[in-house]
Write a structure and sequence with these properties.
about 45% helix; about 270 residues; Rossmann fold; globular; 4 strands; alpha/beta; four-stranded parallel beta sheet
C-alpha cells in the first residue's frame, strides 16, 4: 500500500492491520549518460511497493534525500549538508512513528546511504522512541545463495555496477521511457584506481578517483527481460525481510531493556 494513495481512514486501518512502514531511500544523481537521475529512488520505491503487495505494509512516498556529496560536480544532483540530512531523515522517521507505526524498515538502494543509515541506527540509542527501526540495503544478507547464483548468471558483464547492467536492466523493465540506450559508451567503465598508492585508506575522493564519469560496469547487455527477473528476485528477498520484521519480538524487547537500564543508571548514579 502506498502511503500517498490511501485516504485518511484507509491509512489508519492500514496502520492497525500491518504495523510496518517501509521508507525507501534513494538520491538524485547521475547514473552514466543513459539512466535517469532518479534511478535509485525509483527502483527502491518500486521494489518496496511490489513487496508490500505480497506481504502487506505501507510504503512511504518516493524519498530522494540521501548522502550524495560525491556527485555534487554533476548536473542534477541534489545533496544536503550531512547534519541537516540526518535531522531530516530522523524527523521523517519520527513522523512515521507518530502516525502509529511501531516498526519501520529503511530500504536503501543508493550505495552512499549505508554509512548515513548506520549513524541513524546508532542515534536511535540516544533517545527512546515509540517505534523499532530496521535497515536493509538493496539485496543484503537476506538474499539466498540460490538467488545470488541466478542473479550472477544473468549478468553477462559479470557485475552490476553504477548505472551498469543490473540497474539499467531493472529500469528497462520498470521505466523504459527513461532509459537512453543509444548513449551508453562503447566500452565498459573500469576503475581508474587513481588512489591505489593509498591502499587500505579512505579519502573523500575515493569514488571520484575510480569513476570520474559516475558510471561503472557495462550497461550494453542490459535487457528488460533480465530486469523483470532481477526485480522478482529482489522483491522476493524484501518480502522475506518484511515477514521477519513483523515476526520479530526480540528487537523491541531489547530496546525496552536497554532504555530501562539507561534510566536506572541515571537515577542511581552508579556504573
Amino acid at each position: 500500500m502506498r502511503w500517498e494513495a490511501l485516504t485518511s481512514p484507509d491509512f489508519a486501518r492500514a496502520v492497525r492491520e500491518t504495523g510496518v512502514c517501509i521508507l525507501p531511500m534513494g538520491v538524485l544523481e547521475k547514473h552514466g549518460e543513459h539512466c535517469p537521475l532518479g534511478t535509485d529512488y525509483l527502483i527502491a520505491h518500486d521494489v518496496a511497493t511490489l513487496a508490500a503487495e505480497v506481504e502487506p505494509a505501507v510504503v512511504f512516498p518516493q524519498f530522494y534525500f540521501g548522502q550524495i556529496n560525491e556527485a555534487r560536480c554533476y548536473p542534477g544532483t541534489v545533496a544536503i549538508r550531512l547534519a541537516l540530512l540526518a535531522e531530516l531523515v530522523e524527523a521523517t522517521l519520527d513522523e512515521i512513528g507518530r502516525n502509529g507505526f511501531r516498526k519501520i524498515i529503511i530500504y536503501s538502494w543508493h550505495g552512499g546511504n549505508p554509512n548515513l543509515v548506520g549513524q541513524l541506527l546508532k542515534q536511535h540509542l540516544w533517545q527512546e522512541k515509540p517505534y523499532t527501526l530496521y535497515s536493509v540495503h538493496r539485496i543484503a544478507s537476506f538474499e539466498t545463495p540460490e538467488r545470488r547464483e541466478e542473479r550472477m548468471k544473468l549478468l553477462e558483464s559479470g557485475r552490476g555496477g553504477h548505472g551498469g547492467e543490473y540497474e539499467t536492466s531493472i529500469l528497462l523493465a520498470q521505466h523504459p521511457e527513461m532509459v537512453k540506450m543509444e548513449t551508453i559508451p562503447d566500452e565498459p567503465s573500469e576503475s581508474l584506481a587513481r588512489l591505489k598508492h593509498l591502499r587500505g585508506m579512505a579519502t573523500p575522493m575515493n569514488w571520484y578517483s575510480m569513476y570520474p564519469e559516475h558510471y561503472s560496469g557495462d550497461a550494453r547487455p542490459s535487457t528488460a527481460e533480465k530486469g523483470k527477473r532481477f526485480m522478482q528476485l529482489v522483491v522476493e528477498t524484501l518480502v522475506e525481510y518484511i515477514r521477519a520484521v513483523k515476526a520479530d519480538t526480540v528487537e523491541p524487547m531489547l530496546q525496552k531493556e536497554f532504555f530501562k537500564r539507561v534510566d536506572e543508571l541515571g537515577r542511581s548514579g552508579k556504573g
